[in-house]
Amino acid sequence: MSKYIYINSHSQSSTSNANVGLVFVEGIKDFECEFTDAPLQFKTYDSFSTLTWNIVVDNNLLTDSQAKELTDKAFSKAYIKSLNGVNSTVEFFPPNGVTFASQV
Fold first, then answer.
1. CA distance 102 to 104
2. Of 1, 4, 52, 80, which one has the fewest beta carbons inside 10 Å?
């Protein structure tokens, strides 16, 4: 059975959530939230491509480095849950203060 992670735009507590991406779990080779010129970006890497999302950080709640750390940890939990779970899909919600704005 193929497994996927749905990428949601806002934290789980947000009422204005939207699915902004779908990641094939078995293909993931690496993932990271990285500092680029601007804005902060989250990337997943597989054998064939890189999926990239721009991230908006509410700097009233988090610094960029805190957002990076919390986003990486939250995605790690979703990834592990997808590997160990029986469901074909797992939802990833970014931490409070982080919004996945758009896929690049």
1. 6
2. 1
Closest CA to 43 of 29, 56, 53: 53
Q: What is the pTM of this model?
A: 0.91
Q: What is the pLDDT of residues 14-61, one digit of tens each?
A: 877 888 999 999 889 999 998 876 788 999 998 888 999 999 999 999
Say which residue the tokens 């790690």 belong to.
76
Confidence category of residue 92, pLDDT binned at 50, 70, 90:
very high
Question: Do residues 6 and 92 lie in contact, with contact meaning Cβ atoms separated by under 8 Å?
Answer: yes
- The structure tokens 């193929």 sit at 2
Backbone φ and ψ of 81, nearest 5°: -60, -40
